[in-house]
Specification:
signal, Leu-rich_rpt_typical-subtyp, alpha/beta, Rossmann fold, Toll-like receptor 22, Leucine-rich repeat, LRR (right-handed beta-alpha superhelix), 958 residues, leucine-rich repeat
Length: 958
């Protein structure tokens, strides 16, 4: 019978298997055995870098097939509603657990007790209402706990007592309402340094509510609470350095009796705080001696007044003023901010900035003017001689002039992305001699006009992606001798002039994906000048070769240090080839991506130039077959991507010598059978992805199924969703539900049967030898007699004796004194007696057999002693067999004693004979002995035909 879809095993079947195992262990005396360890074929998760990832898997419970060696477990965005006590009992080395974005409303006590190594726990955005006593027992090593976005109203006093190592706690966006509940939490957390309790409905904050707490907090976030009173009368936060108290929806009264209480606060965020100007002055005065960073966004006070208050703090160096509706900024507005080194004026709708605005803040190093409505670079920035970072992104700038960045010789980073710049001028960056990062992506530029020919000698990163560039001209980047990263992707580049990258001697990374570059452009040797290039991305272009001929000049022959090369197709139709010397010169290439260029085949010599290749992606091509010789030059390959091809088999791996392959992705192909030879050819494999293939659900895949379930080295991603494609009646069924019991011999059951039979045979032999050895000897000689009788049946040899006398030695006096004189002396019969006529030296059983078969009759002289005699029993057995065999009247029974029937019950053969035959009784013949001897004479005289002597036999009983 062929295999079918597996059904549930019955209790009887399980009982049989358990019984077999118990018997097997008992009989063979096995002292120990190994239980197979479940492998990495998980139903809803995958393992990546020792992290179990089960994100968005629609799980309603924590999966139990996670390997015990994982250090991270991500269960985000599922439908788990309860955490049970058994969910994490087998994860002793887990350090990070993500349970955010679920529906958890209940956590069993002790659910985390076995997570002795856990450092980070995330329970954000669930439905917890209460934190019960001892909820977090066992988490003594936890350092970070996030319970943001729940519905917590109540907290037991001992909920957090076991978390003695906790340094970070975020319990924001809950419904605590009373700051005393926070006190019940933090009183058990001696190592707590960061506390986030924003948006909890606190209306007041009094220091006396936190007394008796030894608080070592450095970070405290109280923002977005509707507080009306903030009162500090004791120094309960002596180590606080970062404080966020903004976002109150109610007007708050600030009451801090001693200005030294916040003397260590260096970063203060009062964004959106509703309070009077006088209270704000009081607040800022309390941090006047330590404050370095102030975030004061979206306040409802006069902007100038806020600037004057904040900039009067002598220690202030970082000021953030966002979300104000400013149309212009003048010099008088920020003239007091002379000590500010970082100024953030983003998201303020600024259109104009007067030329002298920043003249008074000569220490300014970072200026953020992003997300405003500036149409040009403000001239005011030229008055900042030590400015190092300038952010003008997300404005309305359409043109850059030669003097826009005059005198900016100290500038290190310039952000101009997401504007409307259509062109550059050759002089625009002339003074930016120390610039290292220039971001010009997401503009409208179609020409560079030599902007990078001469200047920017220290530029290391240039982002020009998402513009409208169509060509890279000769020497376009000649002046960027320090450039390391160049982004040109998402443009419309279709032309690469010879020498377009000349001067980029230190360039290590260039991105040219999603353009319109053709193969002719790269064949020119356009990349020959990039001798230090490590990464080249050419994916999603129009590179296509119509035949497999050898290129006269390999396009990357000078890039001996290239580490990563990506080449893929974006537009067009038709088949493609890859010249076999396409990779010539890439002796250090480690990653090659040639996905989706409609390749039909790869020449066997394609990779002879890349002996260091470790990652190969040839997915989304039309390979019908791959030669094992293709992989011979790359024995160090660790990752292979061959998804979405039309390969029908992975047999090429068997002889490909990929002993170091660790990662194999082969989705959506036409693989039907994965053989043992294939898997064993990649012994280092730790991850394989075979989703979307056309598996055969028959015995050809039996080994593969066993390997999926039992191996503990290789993760088979999504194996529980593999489906059958053949045979038709199983199409759509899950592959792992296939019953393969009929596909292989059950070795364990064979061992059980063999051992059982051996033991039973041993028991039978022992029993037979102990109790039936004489029966066996008798049967042996009886068999010989049968053969002899069959052989000489027709010879009709004359009988040697008239009768054989079978008797017990205890009855010998009667035989000698009574029987012999009458039968031999008076009646003249010739008798055979064992003490007189048996042949010396001959086996007893042979003498018995010869005597019985050599006599016409057998007379059994029966007494109780006779019945108990073993040899007498043998004699009557031989005689009864002759009676059965010859069907002649050859047996005469003479009883010397009256033996009741019940005493004959143990002697089955004797009792059976008495039921069918007449016998003579000596005790009954004491008064008529002559009649006894006469009847015995008649019995000896009768012929052999039993039918003719029936009357005579019946008349013999006295």
């Amino acid at each position: 019978m062929g295999p079918g879809v597996k059904e549930n095993e019955t209790t009887a079947t399980e009982g049989r298997k358990q019984f077999q195992l118990i018997i097997f262990l008992c009989l063979v005396n096995i002292s120990s055995f190994v239980v197979p360890v479940r492998g990495f074929a998980m139903k809803n998760c995958k393992i990546s870098y020792n992290i179990a990832i089960c994100v968005q898997s629609k799980l309603r419970a924590v999966p139990q097939d996670i390997p015990s060696t994982v250090k991270g477990f991500d269960l985000s965005a599922n439908k788990i509603s309860r955490v049970k006590i058994s969910d994490f009992k087998n994860l002793p080395v887990l350090t990070k657990l993500e349970l955010n974005r679920n529906f958890i409303s209940q956590i069993d006590n002790g659910a985390f007790a076995n997570l002795i190594s856990l450092k980070k726990l995330n329970l954000n955005n669930n439905k917890l209402v209460e934190l019960r006593e001892d909820l977090f027992n066992g988490l003594s090593n936890l350092t970070e706990l996030r319970i943001n976005g729940n519905r917590i109203r109540a907290v037991a006093s001992t909920s957090f007592k076991s978390m003695i190592s906790l340094t970070f706690l975020d319990i924001s966006q809950n419904k605590l309402h009373d700051i005393r509940k926070v006190h019940s939490i933090i009183q058990h957390l001696p190592q707590l340094r960061e506390l986030y309790i924003q948006k909890n409905g606190f209306t007041t904050f009094h220091s006396w509510e936190l007394t008796n707490s030894s608080l070592q907090l450095k970070y405290l976030d109280l923002s977005r609470n509707p507080m009306t009173v903030f009162q500090i009368t004791a120094d309960v936060l002596p180590n606080l350095t970062w404080f966020n108290v903004g976002g109150s929806s109610q007007k708050m009264r600030w009451d801090v009796h001693n200005k030294t209480f916040f003397s260590r606060v260096s970063t203060l965020d009062i964004t959106g705080l509703q309070m009077s100007l006088n209270d704000m002055k009081t607040l800022l005065e309390s941090v006047n001696s330590s404050l370095t960073c102030l975030r004061m966004n979206a306040m409802n006070h006069n902007f100038a007044a806020l600037i004057n208050i904040s900039c009067s703090i002598p220690t202030l160096s970082k000021l953030q003023l966002r979300n104000y509706k400013l149309s212009s900024v003048s010099s008088n507005l920020i003239k007091l901010c002379i000590n500010v080194t970082e100024l953030d004026l983003a998201k303020n709708q600024i259109q104009n900035i007067s030329d002298n605005t920043f003249r008074s803040i000569q220490r300014l190093r970072i200026l953020d003017l992003s997300r405003n409505k500036l149409s040009s670079v403000p001239a005011a920035t030229r008055n900042l001689p030590i400015l190092q970072e300038l952010d003008l992104s997300s404005n309305l700038i359409s043109k850059l002039e030669c003097d826009d960045f005059a005198n900016q010789t100290m500038l290190r980073q310039l952000n101009l992305y997401q504007n409307s710049i259509s062109a550059l001028k050759g002089c625009v960056f002339k003074d930016l001699i120390r610039l290292q990062v220039l971001k010009l992506q997401s503009n409208q530029m179609s020409e560079l006009h030599g902007a990078f020919n001469k200047h920017l000698p220290n530029l290391r990163q240039l982002l020009l992606n998402q513009n409208k560039l169509t060509a890279i001209k000769h020497g376009e980047f000649r002046g960027l001798q320090s450039l390391q990263n160049l982004s040109l992707h998402h443009n419309q580049i279709h032309q690469l002039e010879m020498g377009c990258f000349i001067g980029l001697m230190n360039l290590t990374d260039i991105q040219l994906q999603e353009n319109r570059i053709k193969e002719d452009e790269i064949n020119k040797g356009s990349f020959n000048d990039l001798i230090n290039l490590r990464r080249l991305e050419l994916r999603d272009n129009n590179i296509r070769y119509g035949n497999n001929s050898t290129l006269p000049n390999a396009p990357f022959s000078q890039l001996s240090r290239l580490d990563t090369l990506g080449i893929a197709l974006q537009h067009g139709k038709g088949k493609s080839y890859l010249p076999h010397n396409f990779l010539q010169g890439l002796t250090n290439l480690r990653v090659f991506n040639t996905r989706n260029i409609q390749l039909l085949t790869l020449h066997k010599d394609t990779f002879i130039y890349t002996p260091q290749l470790q990652e190969l992606d040839i997915s989304t091509n039309e390979f019908r077959d791959l030669s094992p010789e293709l992989f011979s030059p790359i024995p160090n390959l660790k990752s292979l991507y061959i998804s979405k091809t039309i390969l029908g088999s992975l047999e090429f791996l068997v002889n490909a010598s990929l002993s170091k392959l660790e990662f194999l992705q082969a989705r959506k192909n036409q693989y039907s059978v994965i053989s043992e030879e294939i898997i064993k050819s990649v012994p280092a494999l730790v991850y394989v992805d075979l989703q979307g293939n056309s598996f055969r659900c028959d015995c050809d895949n039996a080994w593969f199924l066993q390997w999926i379930e039992n191996n503990n080295q290789t993760q088979v991603f999504d194996a529980y969703n593999f489906t059958c494609n053949y045979p038709v009646h199983l199409k759509g069924k899950e592959l792992l539900e296939l019953d393969i019991s009929s596909c292989s011999v059950d070795i364990e059951f064979i061992y059980f049967i063999s051992t059982t039979c051996t033991v039973l045979l041993f028991m039978v032999v022992s029993f037979t030898y102990h109790f039936l050895r004489w029966h066996l000897a008798y049967a042996y000689y009886l068999f010989l007699a049968l053969l002899f009788d069959t052989k000489h049946k027709n010879k009709q040899a004359p009988k040697q004796y008239d009768a054989f006398i079978s008797y017990n030695t205890h009855d010998e006096p009667w035989v000698v004194q009574e029987l012999l004189p009458k039968l031999e002396g008076d009646q003249g019969w010739k008798l055979c007696l064992h003490h007189r006529d048996f042949e010396p030296g001959k086996p007893i059983i042979d003498n018995i057999t010869d005597a019985i078969y050599g006599s016409r009759k057998t007379i059994c002289v029966i007494s109780r002693r006779y019945l108990e005699s073993e040899w007498c029993s043998r004699e009557i057995q031989v005689a009864s067999f002759r009676l059965f065999d010859e069907q002649k009247d050859v047996l005469i029974m003479v009883f010397l004693e009256d033996i009741p029937t019940h005493e004959l019950s143990p002697y089955y053969r004797m009792r059976k004979l008495l039921k069918k035959r007449t016998y003579l009784s000596w005790p009954r013949a004491e008064e008529h002995t002559e009649l006894f001897w006469e009847k015995l004479r008649q019995a000896l005289k009768t012929r052999d035909d039993p039918g003719e002597d029936i009357f005579q036999w019946n008349s013999l009983r006295p």
